[in-house]
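Sanity check

After download, print the first record. It should look like this:
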Amino acid sequence: MKIPTVCPYCGVGCLLSLQVLDGKVKKVTPLNIGPGEGKLCIKGWSAHEFIHHPDRLTKPLIRKNGGFIETGWRKALTLISRSLLEAKEEYGGNSVALLSSSKSTNEENYLLQKFARTVIGTNNIDNCARLCHASTIEGLMKSFGSGAMTNSQEDIEDADVIFVIGSNTSEQHPLIARRIIKAVKKGSSLILADPRSIDLKAYATIHLNLYPGTDVALINAFMNVIIFEGLQDTHFIKSRTEGFHELEKLVAKYTPEYAARITGVDAKLISNAAKIYAKADKASIIFSMGITQHTTGVNNVVSLANLAMLCGNIGRPGTGVNPLRGQNNVQGSCDMGALPDFLPGYRRVSDVEARKTFEERWGVKCPDGRGLTLIEMINECGGKIKAMYIMGENPLMTDPDLNHVKKQLEKLDFLAVSELFPSETTEVADVILPAASFAEKDGTYTATDRRIQRIRKAVEPVGESQPDWMIISQLSKIMGYLMPYTSPANVMEEIAELVPIYGGVSYERLDKGALKWPCIDENHPGTSILHVERFTRGRGRFVTVDYNPPSEVPDEEYPFILTTGRLLFHWHGGTMTRRSKTLIDQVNEAYIEINPSDANLLRIFDGEKVKVKSKRGEITLKASITERVKEGVVFIPFHFAEAAANHLTNSALDPEAKIPEFKVCAVKIEKPSDFESFPKT
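Expected structure tokens:
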């Protein structure tokens, strides 16, 4: 039996077929339709390998005598219900926090935010988009009025110039990298801005090897050159934007020479790259977490929006500002309102009319105050936050400053976690619920380009595990609020009723093919390109931003800049990929990339164990001596719990998006002889 579905990893949304035999998924093959066009990356090809892994959670567990014992669903849900109600009754609804998941379906994210607002009475609901693309939402909302990718993945191949910044596309989004490479082979120019010599460098016309956290200075210098050379699209600026003159004044000081001193990139390279971008008829900007995960993440995003508007590269094929989502449903979890300041469909919780719409449908009064973001929730554990419910996330791997996170979670009166596998976070939970995997349930994911697609149940859930939409519905009923859904299709019917951009979405239509929002009614074909004739906010807004350095910069004690990221063979906290034999056979050990010049000064050899320290923690891992990083910069992939990079990373936040600065912190490196005593021989 072959069941068509969507890959559970990155936000590309490749379609695949699950090959089922004797009630188990035995193999994955690509479908010849959809974003992947009949191709899969190595993670997609091995997406079945974790489904039936012996580590899967199969029964509810409750903490007892310092360990966990198995229990029934009724008892586990009753304990959760009682604990959440006790916190609510004693301290108020805002004493409870809920963490939703960008790995879960749209329907599950919708139900958890609904549970937060109807049953608990709080806007303390967030998802892990806070850790990757919160600044994208805030920045593009400011500039365009919509926080989503402006164009479709297919459009990339129509671009004359592709500007990739802060995205290791070949490893994070391989099938989009394939489109970039196809475009280059057809004649497109590729401008690459990245602190590392990533694989795409082989196809780049220009590689801008900037220091981490200096993106605003680089982009402002692009605009300085474009305006000085008179290459801006004056007609587009006058007819469709506002705020240009303020931008023009600000970027006047950002000459290539000035930016070179900040970024470490040669001034001539900056000037040449700016001209290549500006002279293109169609230029596409692609970015990811190398842009967003900074204390200046919002500023980075609006700078890219400024650049696109300056040259009229919005609203046409082959153009746009295109954030690549790191997880399969980052876009959808935000669309569904799993955010502390937005209801479903990006209507502010402070909007009286928006709240009224939901109150009439849900039959309760919705809370109106902005809730706590993910990091704020963690910081308030044991203070404002007494109880927490986590669906499918592992903050003890994926949040910054993990020592702090663990101390905070241990302060909670109660923690419940719904998960596929035991994790660092389930270890500190009071109740653990076994959740169904993507192959064991129906639902929808929304890909990075707003593409809504169906996932389909192929096999029965392992053991007693259940889909999260069923878990939430049961818990809600026990707590006194009926969610009478018989299937995820029923949930999507309610979403379509309440969320205008999903107004024309139904399972019946999705079974015939994907739809890209906005899809406003049952006759609407969906929207491939946003802002074609006007921006969502009316006129596009130039938002002037100055360069500000990262929150933490190197000093005498901590002389290196650490930046973190992903590998082709693993994903997120490794909970799923490190239970795939194919993937762990490729890479299964943490390492730190160090430039040969720095390694020589420190007398560190390739493959040698080193200790890396920041002001927050330390880890021990293998050194990889490589030219991929420039002098003074080191890189660590964050997938490996035994040497988790997030023990080191900085929890300083962007003031608007509240996203942590994962991409820059200061560290020092010590050799084994500096921190170990070896016995005499």
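If your output differs, re-run the checksum step. Summary of this record's structure: DSSP finds 24 helices and 30 strands in the chain.
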